[in-house]
Amino acid sequence: MSQILLYEPRVLLRSLVQHLIDGKSRPLWPHQISTSYITDIRSSANKSMCVLVGVGGVGQNFAELLRLFRHLKMMKVKTVAWVPADYLYLTKLLRAVGVNEVLTEENLTNELTATLQKMAAPWDAAIKRRRVPDISQTELDILLLFSAGLSAKDISVHRGCCYKTVFSWKHNICMSLDIKTPDQWLTVLAEIAQISTLYQQR
């Protein structure tokens, strides 16, 4: 039976998820502080673990969470995340860093219930990873620098690399996230910036 590690600091959503999980009689390890959650998972990740995250509640630790998801993918840890419904490119980004299932907050009860039912079967058979191009750690770092407001020139100086190399990384990011226009690129950056400030822990 998978051990479930839940991170959802927002009380109503956390109560909802805990209720759904309790109904499945699965071991639950809830967290309300994202820094301790990330630290605990990094130190104890294993294939029998299932990580559940309410991304809208992560706040300023969103960048570190994305890096954690890439790490968990390499460890073959099961991951499920939920986001506000209108964050199209954020959903694509989460899949590109390795999240197995991306759900929407607005339909969380139905979608998470279905996902928990799938978990009753062996994970590899129950959930087929969508064919989404991966985003590398370097590309993820570059994307986060862009979302923080740095220009390509700033990033080239920061990384100590050629200006054209930054554009090559940006091109790869756009391919992975199916970004085809400048407006879509700005939407991606806006979604990352918004989700990073949507919920601030006190």
The dominant shape is globular
Largest pleated sheet = 5 strands, parallel
Helix content: 40-55%
Number of strands: 5
Number of domains: 2
GO molecular function: DNA binding
Domain HTH luxR-type: 132-193
Protein name: Regulatory protein LuxR
Organism: Enterobacter lignolyticus (strain SCF1)
Give the topology.
Elements: E1 3-7, H1 11-22, E2 28-31, H2 34-44, E3 49-54, H3 62-74, E4 78-83, H4 88-96, E5 101-104, H5 108-118, H6 123-126, H7 137-147, H8 152-159, H9 163-177, H10 182-197
Parallel strand pairs: 1-2, 1-3, 3-4, 4-5
Helix pairs in contact: 1-5, 2-3, 7-9, 7-10, 8-9
Describe the fold and architecture.
GO terms for molecular function: DNA binding. By secondary structure, the chain is of the alpha/beta class. It has 2 domains: 3-126, Rossmann fold (3-Layer(aba) Sandwich); 137-197, Arc Repressor Mutant, subunit A, CATH 1.10.10. It is built from 10 helices and 5 strands, in the order βαβαβαβαβαααααα. It has helices at residues 11-22, 34-44, 62-74, 88-96, 108-118, 123-126, 137-147, 152-159, 163-177, 182-197; strands spanning 3-7, 28-31, 49-54, 78-83, 101-104. Strand 4 (78-83), helix 4 and strand 5 (101-104) form a beta-alpha-beta unit. Helix 2 packs parallel to helix 3 (62-74), helix 7 (137-147) crosses helix 9 (163-177) and helix 8 crosses helix 9. The longest helix has 16 residues, at 182-197. The protein is globular, with a radius of gyration of 17 Å.
